[in-house]
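Narrative of accomplishments. A recurring question from our advisory board has been how the design workflow behaves on a single, concrete structure rather than in aggregate. To address it, we present the structure tokens for one chain from the evaluation set, followed by the sequence designed for it. No filtering or post-editing was applied between the two.
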């Protein structure tokens, strides 16, 4: 079947071909003639044994093609420091584009560019003819070359194959004019497509968002401010599209000017962090001798080692006065001879990892003496160092196989002068993360509602709290009295820091569909939402000695940026738009929020995205996306399930926030316990029906749904309860709760959050009746099961056993394994294939376009 978008082209572009002539806006762009220099001849052949030729002039001067977006009249700077502009290149009646060679005796270079659009997985052929030598590129990838000059009056040719998926792609032809060439400088480019489908060409880079936008180009990571707020540390990454490897680096910039001061890309280095005071930072360098801690001073420009050649270094933390370091050494058990017998000694040892324990050491800067602080078989985690340097907080944990949540934490306060150790809590089943208050008299603790004997619980009539719904507590060290700060505060805490400047607590939290930043006034006991620009904050850093913070955030249709906020007046200033600006020519669909009242009276929040270039007179297919587990599906940009891309592909996307998610209050999140989709399925079905009824532009006969992990379980479960969906996708879903509980590496542990106190032997109604596998005969909706072959979180068998059942029942089901991938599909090339599979399934069932599905899986009978 030929997709409708191809059947109704108004015009196609094939310069010099026998196809339809196109309008002017589909002509190529060109730089015109650009001067280049011939390399200096040294002596002999190259190291590859090649004689010098004009090829080395063509390849010796070039612009970076990885980020360029040519546009008519768009300017660029050449290496002669002169501004130039991209111009339209008109072809003559024979299809040739002519380049006027400059009045010079030197070599000249020219670029020709055009954008090719693809509505699916299509192969195109590009034949280039020219008397001159040339190269053909797709983006920054060189496809074909012609390095032999043509004889007088003749041309040479090269044909490149363009394997495209959905999107708009840049094609570049780079050619060279050699002094004295008697042939006219000209290029002819002819495109052909598979099955007679002609490509759509344009000189306009405007397009919808694609998977390539999401994965490629520079990506903005976390930020961290120097203590006085004058410098900022920014993390970046970029995938190499040829190798699939991701390059990560850290840059230091001046906050006031934005000037780059230093870029760290050293192999074997990591752990870049600010020193407590001054304009200094530190990092670790690893080599065969061990790990060394290095300090870089931005005032003096000096870089020097501090702690040298430590084997098995595990964490480094400086005292505020910078007079000592607390560091860890991870010691492994003695290696035993390899054996085919793998003894499993406790629930957490599913991977047969080597047993290890981290011990803490104190390194004195003045004397260079290290002193061991802890000893034993338990791993020790440093939580914090007091500002006066007199105390440290550290924790240990041990497995507890018979009592959920199957782990016991103990936290201690150590006096570094006397060595005296005070136990703050012993063998607590609920983990907590403490830090010192600025004056050292109390602790700020992040933990679940059940911490400190449940003093922070606020779950109404629900029997069990959701331990993911993290709270803030203050523990007074003198009285041991605990103050549950957020018991009546609905957002769920993520990170927190206590400012020594104004004694206020700044924290980020899941707030319904958002991740926001807040300020807690410890004197007035009030919460205030910070005036942050984005709806979803992914990184937040408070300057230790000033009222300034930096953060990274994004929204739907708004890629990540970083901001600086003045906490004294709430003023925000955009600091970094590197990733944001790479979407300059992308058109997004608009979004809106939509809530409904469920049959039990609960307000279920949600949002939806309109298709890009929305037309209210049209009918659009709908994709319903959900999670249904402990965390909400926030309104963030990109992610594993990029709703912005789906909208750019012509889908309406609806995202409900069903019961059980954190960020809506403890009573709401506690509904997750011992439910396993019982309530959530009804809410998704009810919400989808009401959404369709309220939005006449949705085609009620073309409804798809998709979820992953617990959301994948929800996809499976939904199909046993309704046939309203036209098709469905489950990634890494759970088909049998009992098998996941026992076989998933963390299944037994997640059971404490999803079904505390319930087991296969005492709750068959839960483990059997709520498992999609045991109701497989009720499934009639076309279902696609996706799963990483190496998934240790939700084992592959969870999809396999439902696939087997549905195949035996003769139901419309397909299963695709992503080889070598775990719970998350992270490998660059596999992520693209996985995404294309998802879109191909939706396009097949919701648009009636099965070309991509058949191309990916020609053996499919569906």
């Amino acid at each position: 079947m030929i997709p409708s978008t191809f059947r109704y082209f108004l015009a196609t572009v094939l310069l010099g071909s026998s196809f339809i002539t196109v309008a002017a806006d589909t002509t190529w762009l060109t730089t015109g003639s650009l001067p280049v220099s011939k390399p200096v001849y040294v002596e002999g052949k190259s190291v590859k044994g090649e004689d010098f030729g004009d090829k080395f002039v063509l390849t010796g001067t070039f612009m970076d093609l990885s980020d360029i977006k040519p546009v008519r009249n768009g300017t660029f700077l050449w290496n002669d420091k002169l501004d130039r502009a991209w111009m339209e290149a008109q072809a003559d009646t024979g299809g040739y584009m002519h380049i006027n060679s400059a009045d010079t005796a030197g070599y000249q270079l020219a670029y020709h560019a055009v954008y090719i659009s693809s509505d699916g997985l299509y192969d195109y052929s590009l034949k280039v003819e020219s008397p001159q030598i040339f190269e053909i590129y797709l983006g920054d990838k060189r496809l074909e070359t012609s390095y032999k000059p043509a004889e007088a009056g003749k041309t040479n040719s090269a044909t490149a194959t363009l394997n495209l998926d959905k999107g708009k792609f840049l094609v570049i032809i780079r050619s060279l004019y050699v002094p004295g060439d008697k042939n006219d400088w000209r290029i002819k480019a002819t495109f052909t497509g598979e099955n007679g489908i002609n490509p759509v060409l344009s000189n306009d880079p405007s397009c919808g968002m694609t998977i390539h936008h999401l994965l490629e180009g520079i990506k903005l990571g976390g930020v961290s401010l120097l203590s006085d707020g004058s410098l900022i540390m920014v993390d970046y990454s970029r995938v190499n599209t040829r190798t699939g490897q991701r390059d990560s680096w850290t840059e230091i910039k001046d906050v006031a000017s934005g000037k780059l001061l230093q870029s760290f890309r050293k192999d074997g280095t990591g752990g870049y962090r600010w020193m407590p005071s001054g304009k200094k930072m530190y990092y670790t360098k690893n080599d065969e001798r061990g790990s060394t801690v290095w300090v870089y001073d931005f005032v003096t420009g000096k870089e020097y080692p501090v702690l040298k050649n430590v084997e098995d270094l595990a964490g480094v933390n400086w005292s505020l006065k910078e007079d000592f370091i607390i560091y860890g050494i991870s010691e492994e058990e003695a290696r035993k001879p390899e054996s085919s017998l793998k003894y499993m000694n406790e629930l957490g040892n599913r991977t047969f990892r080597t047993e290890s324990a981290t011990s803490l050491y104190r390194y004195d800067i003045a004397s260079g003496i290290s002193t061991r602080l802890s000893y034993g078989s338990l791993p020790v985690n440093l939580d914090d160092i007091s500002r006066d340097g007199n105390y440290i907080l550290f924790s240990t944990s041990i497995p507890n196989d018979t009592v959920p949540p199957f782990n016991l934490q103990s936290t201690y306060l150590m006096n570094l002068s006397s060595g005296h150790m005070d136990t703050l809590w012993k063998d607590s089943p609920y983990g907590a993360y403490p830090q010192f208050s600025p004056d050292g008299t109390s602790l700020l603790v992040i933990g679940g509602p059940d911490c400190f004997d449940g003093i922070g619980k606020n779950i109404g009539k629900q029997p069990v709290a959701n331990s993911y719904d993290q709270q803030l507590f203050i523990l007074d060290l003198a009285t041991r009295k605990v103050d549950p700060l957020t018991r009546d505060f609905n957002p769920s805490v993520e990170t927190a820091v206590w400012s020594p400047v104004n004694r206020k607590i700044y924290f980020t939290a899941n707030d319904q569909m958002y991740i926001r930043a807040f300020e807690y006034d410890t004197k007035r006991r009030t919460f205030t939402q910070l005036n942050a620009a984005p709806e979803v904050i992914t990184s937040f850093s408070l300057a230790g000695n000033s009222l300034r913070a930096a953060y990274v955030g994004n929204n739907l249709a708004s890629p990540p940026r970083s901001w600086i906020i003045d906490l004294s007046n709430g003023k925000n200033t955009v600091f970094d738009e590197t990733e944001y600006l790479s979407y300059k020519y992308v058109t997004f669909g608009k979004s809106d929020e939509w809530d409904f009242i469920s049959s039990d009276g609960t307000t279920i929040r949600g949002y939806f995205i309109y298709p890009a270039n929305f037309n209210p007179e049209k009918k659009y297919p709908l994709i319903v996306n959900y999670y249904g587990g402990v965390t909400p599906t926030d309104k963030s940009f990109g992610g594993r399930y990029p709703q912005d891309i789906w909208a750019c592909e012509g889908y309406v996307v609806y995202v409900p926030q069903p019961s059980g998610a954190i960020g809506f209050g403890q009573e709401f999140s506690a509904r997750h316990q011992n439910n396993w989709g019982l309530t959530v399925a009804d809410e998704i079905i009810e919400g989808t029906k009401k959404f369709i009824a309220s939005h006449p532009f949705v085609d009620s006969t073309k409804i798809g749904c998709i979820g992953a992990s617990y959301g994948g379980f929800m996809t499976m479960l939904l199909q046993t309860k309704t046939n309203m969906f036209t098709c469905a996708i489950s990634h890494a879903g759970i088909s049998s709760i009992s098998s996941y509980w026992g076989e998933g590496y963390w299944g037994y542990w997640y059971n404490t959050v999803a079904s505390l106190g319930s087991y296969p032997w005492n709750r068959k109604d839960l483990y059997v009746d709520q498992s999609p596998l045991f109701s497989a005969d009720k499934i009639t909706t076309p279902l696609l099961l996706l799963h990483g072959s190496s998934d240790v979180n939700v084992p592959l068998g969870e999809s396999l056993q439902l696939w087997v059942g549905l195949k035996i029942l003769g139901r419309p089901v397909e299963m695709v394994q992503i080889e070598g991938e775990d719970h998350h599909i992270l490998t660059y090339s596999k992520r693209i294939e996985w995404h294309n599979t998802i879109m191909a399934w939706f396009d097949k069932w919701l648009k009636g376009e099965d070309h991509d599905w058949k191309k990916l899986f020609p053996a499919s009978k569906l």
